[in-house]
Amino acid sequence: MLAPAPSRLAYVPFVSVENMMKLVHRIGIAEMLTGLAEYIEQDFRRWELFDKTPRVASHSREGVIELMPTSDGEDYGFKYVNGHPKNTREGLQTVTAFGLLASVNTGYPVLLTEMTLLTALRTAATSAMVARHLAPEGARTMAMIGNGAQSEFQALAFRAICGITAVRLYDTDPAATAKAMRNLAGSGLTLTACSTAEEAILGAEIITTCTADKQNATILTDNMLGAGVHINAIGGDCPGKTELHPDILSRADVFVEYPEQTRIEGEIQQMPADFPVTEMWQVITGAAPGRRDAAQVTLFDGVGFAVEDFSALRYLRDHLHATGLFQDLDMIADPDDPRDLFGMLMRAGPEGAHAA
Ligand code: NAD
């Protein structure tokens, strides 16, 4: 007798790095960034129904390994991600990630995917989506301080989503700036390599800080900033790792994803526990004001929150099947009789003829 075919639920679509690269090209980088920003904004609009918790972080002297779970009651998602600033010196990535989406109804996984590329895309889409709500009207120039792995994604997202036309780049390592300039040549952006952070922010209405250093660094000080700028600070994202002088936080209106997590990991870890912040989802739903006037300094203290990864996983699930760019993983045990897991085991392999 033929064994019944395993149920399709037993196979989990897996998106490898190779397939993710093909998928991004198939969809188009700008279109994917725009689509991700739409999914993230949709999820910020329904923020209150998410099951939220600060990420579960395991810190070491060299970096951090984190799990980022959330659920909207229908789907459940999590990401595994690390942050190791010293890695690039060893030829490794600072940030790598993979993630999973599951059905709340069955608990079965429905998607497993690389998320190193997807994190860079979703981080950039989040930053640009937030800036669309907070940046000064007509902003066209962005300073990009820190020209590592995230930087090109940030530049392209701000171009696609906010209409930025010029980027002024600075990194302590000129080789990183040269790499970003090369990668962004032909993007339609006007690029200027700068030799100091002060030079980079000249004439910029938006300032992105995207550096990696496991210490309280001071990439920007208050006296460097003119009125009305929007700061997109995404590099400071774990305890003891910040980018901005506290005076900037005192002067700016600070916007965050999830205060319970940002107070631990963000720029505001330098401030008292009751330091006032506005949650971004409230700005998006109209429950709280965003930018009120042209002179206001707005600051997005972005640390990356699980809901953004959930949105990215949702986007991927919704766009994956049309592309065929995945492999089916035999990841879920699927015995013919759900209570006969042992019988399934014994039917396999040379000793399958179990003589009990
Ligand atoms: P990366 O290591 O590839 O690049 C970081 C760059 O910063 C390097 O080129 C380095 O030379 C430069 N740098 C370090 N100190 C500097 C300084 N004082 N001034 C100017 N440049 C400086 O890292 P990456 O993957 O691009 O990530 C950058 C940061 O963003 C990391 O700290 C990472 O943890 C964080 N991150 C945040 C989010 C989020 O959602 N908020 C998501 C991904 C990464």
Give the strand tally: 17
Small molecules in complex:
nicotinamide-adenine-dinucleotide
Tally of individual helices: 11
Q: Can you tell me the CATH superfamily of the largest domain?
A: NAD(P)-binding Rossmann-like Domain
Class per helix and strand makeup: alpha/beta
Distance between the termini: 21 Å
Estimated radius of gyration? 22 Å
Briefly, what CATH class of the largest domain?
Alpha Beta
Low-confidence stretches: 1-6
Tally of distinct domains: 2
Which overall shape is indicated by the principal axes computed on the Cα atoms? globular
- Helix coverage percent: 25-40%
Q: What percentage of the residues does DSSP assign to strands (E)?
A: 15-25%
Mean pLDDT: 94
The biggest sheet amounts to: 8 strands, parallel
Write the H/E string, N to C: EHHEEEEEHEHEHEHEEEEHEHEHEHEH
Topology:
Elements lengths: L10 E5 L1 H11 L1 H17 L10 E4 L4 E8 L3 E9 L13 E7 L5 E6 L1 H19 L6 E5 L5 H12 L3 E5 L3 H11 L5 E4 L3 H4 L5 E4 L6 E5 L9 E4 L8 E3 L1 H6 L1 E4 L2 H7 L12 E2 H6 L12 E4 L4 H15 L6 E4 L10 H7 L9
Parallel strand pairs: 1-6, 7-8, 7-10, 8-9, 10-12, 11-13, 12-16, 14-15, 14-16
Antiparallel strand pairs: 1-17, 2-3, 3-4, 4-5, 5-6
Helix pairs in contact: 2-3, 2-4, 2-10, 3-4, 3-10
The chain binds nicotinamide-adenine-dinucleotide (NAD).
Nicotinamide-adenine-dinucleotide (NAD) binds next to helix 3 and strand 11.
Structure explained in plain terms:
The chain is of the alpha/beta class and 356 residues long. The chain has two domains: 8-117 and 308-342, ornithine cyclodeaminase, domain 1, CATH 3.30.1780; 124-304, Rossmann fold (3-Layer(aba) Sandwich), CATH 3.40.50.720. Helices cover 32% and strands 23% of the residues. It contains eleven helices and 17 strands. The strands form three sheets. Strands 9-8-7-10-12-16-14-15 form an eight-stranded parallel β-sheet. Helix 2 packs across helix 10 (306-320) and helix 3 (116-134) crosses helix 10. The protein is globular. The two termini are 21 Å apart. Residues 1-6 have low confidence and may be disordered. It binds nicotinamide-adenine-dinucleotide. Nicotinamide-adenine-dinucleotide binds next to helix 3 and strand 11.
